[in-house]
From TrEMBL:
Transmembrane segments: none annotated. The keyword Transcription regulation applies. Residues 1-56 form the HTH deoR-type domain. The keyword Transcription applies. This is DeoR/GlpR transcriptional regulator. GO terms for molecular function: DNA binding; DNA-binding transcription factor activity. Keywords: DNA-binding, Transcription, Transcription regulation. SUPFAM superfamilies: NagB/RpiA/CoA transferase-like, Winged helix' DNA-binding domain.
Amino acid sequence: MNTRQQNILQVVNQRKSVSVSELAQISGVSVVTIRQDLNALERGSYLKRVHGYAVAMESDDVDARMQTNFQLKKSLAEYAASLVAEGESVFIEGGSANALLARYLAQSRRVTIITVSCYIAHLLKDTDCDVIIPGGFYQKSSESVVGPLTRSAIQLVHFRKAFIGIDGYHEDTGFTGRDMMRSDVVSAVLDKGVETIALTDSSKFGLIQPYALTSQHQISRVVTDDALSAAYRASLAGLGIRCDIVTEEGRSPAG
């Protein structure tokens, strides 16, 4: 993926739908070149093409994403909650599964939740748990705070465990994200060297997104579903990453 294609993907992911002609104008190239770029991005499952428009594969709207595979995400969230002790302070990044995790934790035990997601903070407004939101630039599409101020604030708060979302994993690239600013937030969390747990369904494996989640520290554990292939389980194990497998019914048949 070249730099122009990365910029195209960033614009489409931010705006959800952009016309071919507007992308040509933004990129300073011909419509023919943009169509070639979009064909390549569509073949890689980065976006969809619909009647002269490029459309994001997945919306950042958490309410919409919550309705997809809801029961599975609920089971993943409930299992992830079992990893958190009473009275613990935890960081929860964002996304639909993590939103369910935050709500379940707030309703089941006394915890402090640090989150960059204003959606999650609002979800917890009627609960008894303490909520800390770092400062930063408010990204309207994801309802999260991002940017240098957020990165600095993350370094100033203390937590021993963090739950993050991912948008892709491939052996060639490791863990990746669709959004540059949100990926930077995850990298800031990884930089703290705490136990970091990726909470995700198995559909993200095999995907390569534009932005690497980079740090000298590795993700500690992945909580995902039983559709994850044996090859990816072995790949994670080879990196020293624990993989907890959860079924839609909520059982954890393997670890």
